[in-house]
Amino acid sequence: MTSTAKYIFVTGGVTSSLGKGIIAASLAKLLQAQGYRVTIQKLDPYINVDPGTLNPYEHGECYVTEDGAETDLDLGHYERFLNVPTSQANNVTTGRIYQSVIQKERRGEFLGKTVQVVPHITDEIKERIQILGNSGDYDIIITEIGGTVGDIESLPYVEAVRQLRWDLGENNGIVIHLTLVPYLAAAGELKTKPTQHSVKTLMESGVQADVLVCRTEHDLPSDIRRKLALFCNVREEAVIQSIDASTIYDVPNLMLKEGLDKVVLKKLGLQSDTPDINRWNEFLTRLKNPKTEITIGLIGKYVELQDSYKSILEAFIHAGAANEVKVNVESVHSEYINKDNVDLKLGHLDGILVAPGFGERGIEGKIDAVQYVRENNVPYFGICLGMQMAVIEFARNVLGLKDADSTEMNANTSNPVIDLMEDQKTITDKGGTMRLGAWDCDLKLGSTVRDIYKSEHISERHRHRYEFNSKYKEAIETAGMKATGLNPDTGLVEIVEIPEHPWFVGVQYHPEYKSTVANPHPLFVAFVKAALNHKKKTSSARMAQK
Length: 546
Ligand code: GLN
Known about the structure:
By secondary structure, this protein is α/β, with parallel strands linked by helices. Helix content is 37%, strand content 21%.
């Protein structure tokens, strides 16, 4: 089938971290709001087959799709903006490209030819880019090329884009180049030279940018826009400013004001209309006009980096807007929590979330935190490892199984309340081998979660190797922690809650991956509400004491 889809390639110049993902997602939002079926794909020029094996410190959170792909966190932005699920095909790395080409070579598919970067690697890249277009599900594919032009590792991607533009023909593939226009305070001037150089670097590879999106801290005056247009071979209307915004959710409106959608659609030979972003703007109004605020403690071991818990932080923004509450998230490093300081560290917080994670570092602090919130009726939300910690804490301190543990942390515990899943026991490879992607879950009648989801059956995304050990289910339930969500096929415990507690929910899956602007996740919405109630209750108790 020949594709009728149109392609927009987004490249980056001058420096990394300019926010290509947000620009791509914002443009996609504006196109979607005019009736186009849009998806976004990210090409990452590193040799890891996927980011599943990358340390979040290096590369931020690993995002998981419905079909179980471990992907770049930009895919999270795409889903949060578009409210359309992404898949394996939406994230491709150099590692995956080479793996696939080498496998073909081993199968003898190249018929004795010398296998080379051009054409074999570039052909594989072109094929991967067109998978989404050929599916017939989309009118427009936005392909974001990771890294910065001029990097050695980006070259095959830029070459693939050059070839594809020829193959696709005029009006079917365009290039948006994202650059930085720095402001030199000493000279009091915005500087265009870095942009000129990066556009030239792109041209050396035979690719002319059609649109320039310029990140800037100050408005670009018309003489600067004219200069950029003249030196970079683009029309003045195609010089788009992307000024720093207080929230990423402002960027679609900023791009609308600059006419990015119009320029792009004109270049693609498609009709443009006024985008209908009323619902988006209603969300923004709620986000920007909170009636009150709360502070949630996020307990994890990656507290220094925003990106490590990206989807959780964004889910709080969605849930805060839904409740008209500003949610401040305070990072608390679990390694520094102990029984003696837990009150000091957590006493002022309105709710506690123990984050997902791997390995034993900081585990005891997480368990102390759970004990504190359980005993003091502070709303608790445990995600994945956070749910496992809640089970361990309960087994140790309520059931009295002093050495209860996860076999991930202590392989020799006599009470493995969290244990390796049966089908994980023979697996030794680390990449792509966890329990991944969407799994069904049945919710128990009368449970808090059933009430929150307003549904009996749900499906949520997973990423773990260990599970609640069902041998302990009866004892744990009798003591007051209930298993309220079960996998219908395997009986695996997916959710625990403590009905006696105002709000204590632990989930084995990752609800944060499914929270979007259009559909804030119900568990986050309910947790924020519970934290708000807790705050009201504790402040009126304090008032009464005075
Ligand atoms: N390390 C735990 C497991 O593999 C939890 C994983 C997570 O929090 N994503 O089961």
